[in-house]
Write a structure and sequence with these properties.
The protein is built from twelve helices and seven strands. It is of the alpha/beta class.
Amino acid sequence: ACRTAEDARWVAELRAEGWEIVPVEDLRPEDYPALFEGLENPSYQHCFKKLHLWDLARRLGRRMDRVLYVDSDAVVVGDLQAALYSPELEPPRSGVAMSPDYDWRAGRAARASQGATGRHTADAAAAAAFKPGSYCNAGVLLLRPSAAVHRELMSQLSGYRSRGLAEQDLLHDVFTAAGRTRVLDQGYNAQKWIRICAPDMWSGYDLKVIHYNNAKPWSLQAAAAGAVEPCFAAENDECADLVCLWHELFAEGRRAKPSP
């Protein structure tokens, strides 16, 4: 069931455009009392729903060889055929494929140090500001649904405490730390902070998906009133072109919407 009338309106529009909606339940804090402690953002508790991606074949009642998941704060800007069909990008049978996670705090600090270290040194530090240990970002996931993997993930939740990033920490601990993650090119999850902190590196990406993590390109206040307006607050004023791109693509999608 939709939590708000606004959610129900968007679900109805998606269905009208031909999307198949699969309701997914939230994990209940009373069932997992430690799971939601220390999250960087309380809304991250909903991110644990992603674990049910490995259960998607059962929920839909059909065989599925691959699932490509994209966060709702990301937008597709390139060809995803290779991720969906290429043997070279086959996801691990008992793991996941993800792109590296950019450490925006380290990247911003590197850019801020330009006056003391010089531009070349600051740019190099910003370009290297990815999280250690092959830590990946869960905004885009390529996976093979598996009942066994789904059971494994769910079994890890009892007593689990993330380090602030919810399911992303869990996927790292279960998959990446155990060598079960295939690393995707950064273009499949081009986090906007890379564009802000390391624009030269960004310009070399073959962009497939742009991920608007942290401040969103739309105004949350306007969205609450049912409107869609740009947001240039916080760090978004440093990537205004990406904000405008999101709204151009949104407008195109609305114009292409089929007639009822």
